[in-house]
Amino acid sequence: MTPENNLTGQDTAPRHIEHFVADLEETPLQATDKVKEDSAPSSLWGEAWKNLRKQPLFIISAIMILAVVVVSLFPGLFSQIDPTSEACQLSNSDGGPASGHPLGFTQQGCDVYARVIFGTRSSVTVGLFTTIGVVLFGGIIGALAGYYGGWADAVLARLTDIFFALPLILGAIVMMQLPVFRANRTVWTLVLILIVFGWPQIARITRGAVIEVRNADFVVAARSLGVSKFRSLLRHVLPNSLAPIIVVATISLGTFIVAESTLSFLGIGLPPSVMSWGNDIQAAQASLRSNPMPLLYPAIALSITVLSFIMLGDALRDALDPKARKR
Amino acid sequence: MNSSVHIKEEVAGSERPLLEIKNLAINFATSNGEVNAVRNAHLTVMPGETVAIVGESGSGKSTSALAAIGLLPGNGRVAAGEILFDGEDIAHASEKRMIELRGNSIGMVPQDPMSNLNPVWKIGFQVKETLKANGLPSGPEDVAKVLSEAGLPDAARRAKQYPHEFSGGMRQRALIAIGLSCQPRLLIADEPTSALDVTVQRQILDHLDKMTSELGTAVLLITHDLGLAAERADKVVVMYKGQVVESGPSLELLRNPRHPYTKRLVSSAPSLASRRIQVAKEQGVESDELLAPTEPVVVESALPEEVLKVEDLTKVFKLRGGIGKTTDFTAVDSVSFSVRRGTTTAIVGESGSGKSTVAQMVLNLLEPTSGKIIFDGVDTSTLNSRDLFKFRRRVQPIFQDPYGSLDPMYNIFRTIEEPLRTHKIGTKASREKKVRELLDQVALPQSTMRRYPNELSGGQRQRIAIARALALDPEVIICDEAVSALDVLVQAQVLNLLAELQDNLGLTYLFITHDLAVVRQIADHVCVMQKGKLVETGSTDDVFDNPREAYTQALLDAIPGGSLLLPPEVA
User: Fold this and answer.
1) Is residue A84 a contact partner of residue A275, using CB atoms and an 8 Å limit?
2) What is the pTM of this model?
3) Of B6, B244, B445, the CB nearest to A22
4) Given this model, what pLDDT does residue A25 score?
5) Closest partner residue to B247 among A20, A41, A240, by Cβ?
C-alpha cells in the first residue's frame, strides 16, 4: 500500500501528511518501569479478601455461619433448659409457646427452642468433619492422580469414577445397615460413611486444578532450581489449586449437613439419643397435622445453615474466580 | 472509490477523510472507578490509505480501533470526542446503524487466528455467515471465490474443513477473507500477524497489501512493531499511555522522530543494523548510546573453553494414533553445537523448529532419545540424583512468559529466596542480604521484596525471574524466548541488563528465540534451526552478513522494516 502500487494508473498527487507532535507537557514520559513503594503489598489471597469484604452475600452468610458455629460450641449460652428426653414433661406434650419456651413443646413435652439450639452441634460436627475428611482424602487422591499422571492417574481416576457412580444417600443407607455400623451409630460413624461416598467430587476438582497448574512455567522453574517433584507439588502446585477446592468444599459442607438430617430422618443416621435436627424432624413427623411447629423450627434452622454455606461458597467463587484474577 | 486521485495537491486537502477521530476519550468502568484508556486522540484515514497505530501494550491502540467499529467491551464507553466515518458520527450511532456499517463498510481482521474462528463450524460456513449478514450472494462458489482471493489454494475443498485442520497462516488468511468478503471501505487489522512466524507474516501482509490496493480499501493497521508499521503504512500514529504522541509520514517519523517517546521507541527497536550490545564501562550511559553501532571487538587469540557441548542430540516423540499405534515425530534431529564460556549462543527458528525442545533437554528436564549433552566435561545423562542437584545450581533457565514463570502465591522475597533455601545456602539473614543484592543487580528497589508478582509489570517480573536465576551463581543461563513477550522499550532494558550481567559475572547464555533482530543484539554465535535440524551455524556477523542457506536468507528478509531501520549512513 505504498503510494507507488496504486493500481489506478493515474498520476496521483502524494497526499500531504501532516507531521504532528504532541505537546510535551501533555504527555509526560513516565519512567517505563516503576515499582510502587508506598501501598501495602497485596497477595492474591489479600486481593480476594478485599473483594469479599465488600460483598453483601459474603457478609450475610459469614455472620450466619459464625452464629451457627457459636451456637454449636456453646449451646448453654442460648438455652438453660435441659432438652433431653428424661427432663421433658409429658404434661407439656404439644404445648404452644409459653413463657420461657418461645417455640412451644414437642409431643414428648420437650422444649423445641432448646432442642433446636442443642441439635446444632451434631449437624455442624458432621458437616465440618465430613468436609475436612473429604478434602484430605479426595484432595490427596486427586492431587496424586493429576500431578503424576500416567498409570497412577489411570488407576486413581477410575477408582474415583466408580465411587462417583454410587449415590451418596443410597450408599450411606446400605452401609448403615451393616451390623458393624448399626451397632455403633455415632456422629463419627456417620462422618466416616459420608467421607467414603463423598470424596470423589473433591478428587475430581483437585485433579483438574492440579493438571492445570502442573505445567505452569513457575513449576518448571522450581524443578530446574532443584526442587524435587513432590516438594514442588506441595509448595507450588497445591497452593495454586486451592481456590476451586475451597469453593466446592464450602458448598458441599451444606450438602453433608443435609445428608446427616436425611439419614437421621430415615431412622438410620444418628440414634434417637443424640440430639440432631434430622432426629427432631423425624420425631415431629408423627404429630405433623396437629402440631407442625416442632417440625418447622428444626427444618428452618437446617435450611438457614445449609443456605449460608452455599451462599458463602458462591461468594468465594466470585472472589477466587481465576478469570477475574489480575494478570 | 477515490474519485479525486487525479486532482492535484490543493484538492487533496479538501478531500473528505474516510475515518476521522477527533478528541476521542474512552473510559472504562472498573471496580476502582472510571479508568481513562484513551485521551484526546486524533486520527485521520483517507480513502485507500494505510495508517498504522503503533504503541506498546496498554497504550490504547486497540481500544481506539475497536471504538471505530463500535465493539468496545461492555464496560467501556466513548466519553468525549467524535468518530466520523465518511462524515457520519458513529461514536454515538445506534446499534442498528453500526450493524449496517460493520462488514460492508468497515471490516475487521482480529488479532489471534487461533481463537477467532469458531472451532465447531466449517470455514466455509463462517464465510457464508458474513456474506449472508451483509445481503450478498452466499452460494458455495461465492464462498470459494472469497477464500481463493485471500490466497487459500484449493478453496472449494478448504471451505469444507474445520479451523483445526488449518495452520496458523491459513487461519489468518481465512480471517482476512472474512474481513474483506464484503469489500469494505475500511479494514481494521488488529495485530493481524503477531501470532505468526516471520516468513508467514510476510506472505500474509504482502497479500493483504495486494488485495486492499486492488479494492481501494483503506487499512487501519494496529501493531506493536514500528518496523512493520513503517514498511506497510503510508502514515504512522504513535500512541503512548492513551494519547497520540506523534503522527506523520512513516519514513519521516522513523528517520526524524521528534517526540521523546518516539525517539526512544525508534532507538530501542532492535534491527539488523544494531551490533552486539557492548556494555559501557562508565555508568549512566543512555540506552540508545549502548545500541549505537560500535566497532567489532577484536577476537582474543585464545578461545575460551567449551562449557557446554551438544553432540548428535535427537528427540523423538511418540504420537498416539489409536490403540497400540504410535507414530514417531522427530522434534530434534541430530543437532550438535557447542557453547564457549562467557559467550552468548543463540538458537533461532520458527515455531515447531525444535529449539525449545533443545533447551528443555539441556536443562535436563527432558530425556534425549539419543545423543549427548556434555556440560563442563561431564555427560549430563550419567548424573546421579546428587550430581544432578549440583548441576541445577550451575545451569538456570529464564522463561518466555513473565506472567507464568513466577508463582502468584509467593512474594518476591520468597521467589528469589527459594533457590537458596532449596540448596540450603546460608542462614536466614545471609539469604535476605543476598536477595537484596540480587534486586540491586537487576535494578529494582529493595522494597520490591514485599510485593507479589501481580503487582509488577511484565518487564519487572522478567527481571525478578533473572534475579531468581542468578541466585545460585550459575555459570550458564538458558533464556527461552526471554524477551519475546516484552514491549520494545522494556525488551531493550532487559537485553541491556543481560549484557551487563554477562560482563560483570562472566555468564554464558544459550538464547532461544525466533527474533533475529534480538539475536543480532545479544549473540556471538548463531545456530539456525528448521524443522528439527540445524541448518546453519556460525558467528553472528558471518550468518547475518553472508547467510549460506536459503532458509536463513528468507528469515532475514522477512524481518519487517529491516532495511528501513538501518541508520541513515548505512541506508
Assistant:
1) yes
2) 0.78
3) B244
4) 62
5) A20
